Amino acid sequence: MIIAIDGPAASGKGTLGKRLAAHYHYRHLDTGLIYRAVAKAMLDAGADLADEAVAAGIAQALDPAVFGDAALKTQEVGAAASVVSAHPQVRRELLAFQRNFAAGPPGAVLDGRDIGTVICPEAEVKIFVVARPEVRAHRRALEMRARGEQADEAAVLADILKRDERDRNRSAAPLRRADDAHELDNSELDIEGGVRAAIAIVDAARARR
Ligand code: DC
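A: This is the predicted complex of the input protein with 2'-deoxycytidine-5'-monophosphate.
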């Protein structure tokens, strides 16, 4: 079974994906890390983020071993990822890797922006995770402080809104809820509550099979 989890930045879909994968003993891919890895390589090389050909070359040569790099999690890399991920050539280079990951046994959870719409439109379960922007900014600020970084919540909110706007309005695979996706609003839920709600959605889908 393939479980597709999509939603905007800091909606908590990464943590949810990891927890769902552990619950069902499936493999998990946080696809945001792929775009972050391309973005960080661009920043490290001093490349212009708007240079689609350079970004596509980096995407083609990407080594999944770098996905564990903690430096991918920063706000700066996230903002750069939102820019490079708008390049159609970059998305094309990364398509096969994601589809291969999804296809392997025993099942997979992928989270991102376009999993239910473009990468795995055939996914048996699709969940679109949302939360109010202010809640997402607060959670992101707490995470940053826990890592020892400074966090100005108003600036984090502005960054989240800008990223949402870019992710939703780009022409290549824009962020949108697939017609057959279940919407899960976790604004008023803690992590455990969100995980329980998602498990209920997946169990219902498995029971129908
Ligand atoms: O989920 P995240 O914050 O790690 O994602 C970083 C950026 O990568 C996000 O702003 C848009 C892009 N992204 C994407 O375009 N498609 C995906 N499947 C995942 C992330």
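The beta strands are 2-6, 27-30, 108-112, 125-130, 182-185. The pocket of 2'-deoxycytidine-5'-monophosphate is lined by residues 9, 31-32, 35-36, 78, 81-82, 85, 112-114, 163, 167 (CB under 6 Å).
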